[in-house]
């Protein structure tokens, strides 16, 4: 199986794209979870699906050669991110309402464009659930550039993002331009969501941004450790998930998320056992 991923171009592209996504999704996911914005990936993923369906519709009706559904998906995701940020300004006291609004619009547009593109086909199915053989050279290049942008953004604004994530008011008082930074943060999130969809699919993209983070939070002792462990858990889940998806001939998204969930469950179980043993040991010392 490993040999197949190395020797065949499509599978090799998928593996490389998976490794990139396994890096940037948990990396950004740590900040999203700490900021209590875990649902934002769901909202943006459904807007991205609308863009993908729109791209398929345009390809079918007008044979656009310059743009693929992946490109229109990224465009819609970025637009959705801008709308979310604008709605958060409009509803300052109820900022969380921005996500269900954009999610609902995304679902509605998706249904319309899928119907106009003559219903669910193989392309839409792979976007919904991910695929082990759907990454072209152009897609891989675009995901690589998105990954470079995300890593550069995190490295450049790490301290300010850290401050905003844990204490928004203190960060603003300290001189952090919160509005501008939040604007770019949600744009980067939109790019990560749209890139991740090629691997795990629309319906499961938020899991790759949260499950590795949830797992690492149980074993890490600092914020930086949480980031490192999240990336490790994310990469392990992607590699195992892709191989399992190829072996069992099922969508990669499902196997990646199941692997992430198993890693989380195993970690919680081990921590529980460790706690029980510690309590038992303390009782023996007390006796």
UniProtKB/TrEMBL annotation:
It holds the Pfam family ABC-3. Its main location: membrane. It is a multi-pass membrane protein. It comes from Aquisalibacillus elongatus. The chain crosses the membrane at residues 15-34, 64-85, 97-120, 140-158, 227-248, 254-270. InterPro entries: ABC_BtuC-like (IPR037294), ABC_TroCD (IPR001626). This is Zinc transport system permease protein. PANTHER family: ABC-TRANSPORTER METAL-BINDING PROTEIN, METAL ABC TRANSPORTER PERMEASE. One of its GO terms (biological process) is response to zinc ion. Belongs to the ABC-3 integral membrane protein family. It is found in: Cell membrane; Membrane. Gene3D superfamilies: ABC transporter involved in vitamin B12 uptake, BtuC. One of its GO terms (cellular component) is ATP-binding cassette (ABC) transporter complex.
